[in-house]
Amino acid sequence: MDARKANRQLVSWGVCAAVWAVGALLSLPGLFNSSSTTQNSNRLVCAEQYDPTSADEWRLATRIIRHALGFLIPLAIMLLCYGVTVRRLLRVRGGFQRQRAMRVIVAVVVAFLLCWTPYHVAVMADSFFRTKIVPYRCPARTAVDQAMFATQSLGLLHSCVNPVLYAFVGEKFRRRLQQFMRKAGVLERASVTRASRSSLSSEITSTVM
Q1: Given CB 3.0 to 4.6 Å as the disulfide criterion, which of 105, 110, 159, 170 pairs with 166?
Q2: Is the pLDDT score of 162 beyond 90?
Q3: CATH of region 71-180, choose from 1.20.1070.10, 1.10.472.10, 3.40.190.10, 3.30.70.3340
Q4: C-alpha to C-alpha distances, 17 to 20, 21, 111, 166, 174, nearest whole angstrom
C-alpha cells in the first residue's frame, strides 16, 4: 500500500509539473512578442506585436493552441474524470456525504464554464474578424474589443474562485486548513479572542441587569 501511495504521489507531481511546463510554453509567444507604446494621450498600451507579414497566421495559430490546451482539453478531462467520480458516487450509499461531493463537482465545473467560456467566445469572435471570416464592421469590432477586455478579467477571476469553492464546499479541504491553522497557532488565538469577547459581553450583560 505504501509503494502504491508513493507511486500515486509521484504521478501527481509529474502531472502537475507537466501542466506548469505546458502553461509556461504557451506564455512564450506573448512574452517574446509583447510591446508597449505610448499614445498621444500619454496612455501606455501593451499588446502582442508580430511580424506584419505573418501576424494573422501567428496570432491564429497561438489562439487555436490556447483554445485547445487552455479550454477544450481541460474541460474534456474535467468532465471525464468527474463523470467517473459521479458514477462511483451513485453506487455508494450515504446521502449526506454523496450530496456534498456532488456539490463540489458541480460547483467546480460551473465555475470553470462561467469564468472561461465568455473569454474564449470573445477571442474566437476576434479571430473571425482578423481572418476576415466575418466582414469587418467598426461597431461590432469595438464591441468585441470591449468584450475581450471584460471577459479576460472574468477568466482570471477563476484563479480566485477555485480556492474559495474548495474552502467552503470541500469538507476535506476545510479540515486540512483547520489543522494547518491550529499548528500555526492562528485558530487558538482566534478562539481565545472569541472566548474573551463572549465573556466580556456576559459581564456587561450581568452588570446591566
Answers
A1: 170
A2: no
A3: 1.20.1070.10
A4: 5, 6, 24, 21, 25
